[in-house]
Amino acid sequence: MNQASKKFFKKGDPYVLLTSLGLLISLGMVLWLLAIVLVKGLGIFWPRELVQINLKGENVYLGELWNSGKEISENEFEQIVEEEKTQLKIGNRDLYGYDFIWISDKEIKTMTKPQNAAVFERSEYGNLYGFILQVNLNNEIVTDSSELFNEAEKGISLAHELKIKLDEIEEEYNTLLTPLNKIQREISLLKVNSDFLTDEEAKRLNLLKEEENKLTESINQPRIVLEEKISTLKERLNSFTVNVITANGDETLMQLKNVVRLYQPNEMGIFGKSIHYVQNLWEFLSGEPRESNTEGGVFPAIFGTVMMVILMSILVVPFGVLAAVYLNEYAKQGALTRIIRLSVNNLAGVPSIVFGIFGLGFFIYIVGGSIDQFFFSDKLPAPTFGTGGILWASLTLALLTLPVVVVATEEGILAVPKANKDGALALGATKWQMIKKVVLPNAMPGILTGLILAISRGAGEVAPLMITGVVKLAPDMPLDFNFPFFHLDRKFMHLGFHIYDVGFQSPNVEAAIPMVYSTALLLIAIVVFLNLLAIYLRNRLRKKYKSSSF
User: Fold this and answer.
1) Shortest CA distance to 170 belongs to which of 87, 79, 232?
2) Considering the entire predicted model, what is its pTM?
3) With the CA atoms of 507, 513, 514 and 520 taken in that order, what torsion angle do they form, in degrees rounded to the nearest 10?
4) Within its chain, how far is the Cα of 359 from the centroid?
5) How far apart are CA 470 and CA 360, in angstroms?
6) Backbone φ, ψ for residue 365 (5° rounding)
7) Which of 169, 273, 280, 507 has the fewest CB atoms within 10 Å, i.e. the most exposed one?
8) Nearest 10 degrees: Cα torsion 374, 375, 379, 383
9) Contact (Cβ atoms closer than 8 angstroms) between residue 332 and residue 361
10) What's the DSSP call for residue 368?
11) Per-residue b or e along 211-223, where b marks 16 or more CB atoms closer than 10 Å to that residue's CB
């Protein structure tokens, strides 16, 4: 090795190049991953044109071109051959039992794009692809081909309005019967132990029966009126139908109340497709899931994720800051303090599922079970807090991320110049006043750094949530307009679990793949937004408290 080469290596230039190369490779991998998620996650909302494929046999298929590829197989002569195939999303799951089909390119006779082909997005059984034959609008039959599509859209709009009215009346009906149902439930519980009732319980049972009779008599007339309205609305709603024929000649009758959206993609221009894209995107962000979470929206999962992260942050930051302040400002520095710090650091490496098991055993069974015994004994054996809920999930994740907050806060406290602390004490401040006025404000950037790291880890965790409160579908969200408004005992949906459920537990995996990419993109966007918000606050505080200038 010559002198120039030795000098080159001695200066460390190769190592600088290697580290920069490693950084470039890492950034490239991240950008490539984000590009894949962006393209596949946002591409599903664009309406695809419908293609009608006529095979050389008698079969005809109508659907969306989904994929293409080569299949390697052995022929009858045991020779390896490649065969080009096209994947078509044919929908119509209620008719065929499957959504996708692979077609050999050599079997395709013709491929056309019929202009009047329609897509019916349904609340059940996925999309229906076909051609409209007849529309029935409350016994008004429409068969004119030039008016079928517009009349079908009109029928869908009217059916949705009737369905909203029906839901409102059914809610009023349920509200009317709620007091009676509550009394009947209490009577049923007493009747279960009718042979062992005390005199007081027997008296209570008789009073409840009298109250039941009075209440039944008082609500009888409005109940009958509401039942008649419900029956009439259901009859009208069922009269809005459409007859559709598939490309293969199968005819089906569909009720318009089950149709979410109707469109003809082959007749749509760029402007129409753009509007459709925005509508689909808005439905994804604001709607509720359907079809085993493979279609519809993810708003309950967004709401649950954000609320859990906020609740986790509110719980973890005070405890983390208090622990860090005590370890640095009050605790005597010695072997015990070093062991505690070592234990906190080791907690950061414990698998998240272990925290989930702890949360299940301690928070749910012990704490939640005790709350039920003392405050909700009348509802037992049905648990209130003794089962998974957003409170216990948030506490579990707060415990999971606590070491991160403690360590980051300690670093922020250690960065406060000792001269500032001594100056405050010299001016007559107590130790707590010094901590409150000098240490904590100057350590705030470090505290927010811990919060950022906690949000980043907590928002993406799934394993602990699966056993502490997250569910596939939550009928009620933790926050609503019913007293006490914030229901800490309710189960919730989460974007991370939603990705797992759709990607690995869905009965229709191929149809669920686009939803996986879209939900993953949304989760990344939410975590980035929360982190950027925390970083913005940290930078503001860092500018405000520049301890080095004091």
Assistant:
1) 232
2) 0.83
3) 110
4) 21
5) 12
6) -75, -45
7) 507
8) -80
9) no
10) I
11) ebeebeeeeeeee
> Which helix (H) or strand (E) segment is 375 a member of?
helix 369-375
CATH 2.30.30 given to domain 50-129: yes
How do residues 47-96 score in pLDDT, each as one tens digit? 999 999 998 878 899 999 888 888 776 666 666 777 888 889 988 888 88
Task: Tell me the pLDDT tens digit for each residue of 295-331.
Answer: 888 999 999 999 999 999 999 999 999 999 998 888 8
Of residues 339 and 80, more confidently modeled: 339
Q: Crossing angle, helix 148-192 and helix 199-237, to 10 degrees?
A: 170
Where are the chain's structural domains?
50-129, 302-549
Q: CATH: 3.30.450.20, 3.50.50.60, 1.10.3720.10, 1.10.357.10. Which one for 302-549? A: 1.10.3720.10
Give the Cα separation of 488 and 477 in Å (integer). Answer: 10
**Alpha carbons 503 and 19: distance in angstroms, whole number:** 36
User: Distance between CA atoms of 442 and 413, rounded to whole angstroms?
Assistant: 8
Spatial distance between the Cα atoms of 528 and 521, rounded to a whole number of angstroms = 11
What is the rounded distance in angstroms from the CA atom of residue 193 to the CA atom of residue 170?
Answer: 34
In whole angstroms, what is the distance from residue 117 CA to residue 477 CA? Answer: 39
- Tokens 């609503």 belong to which residue? 480
Among all chains, which residue has been given the structure tokens 């922020």?
412
Angle at 428 between CA 424 and CA 431, to 5 degrees: 65
Let me know if 59 is exposed, middle or buried by CB neighbors in 10 A (0-12, 13-18, 19+).
middle
Amino acid residing at 466: M
Task: HSE, CB side, 13 Å, CA atoms: give it for residue 193.
Answer: 9
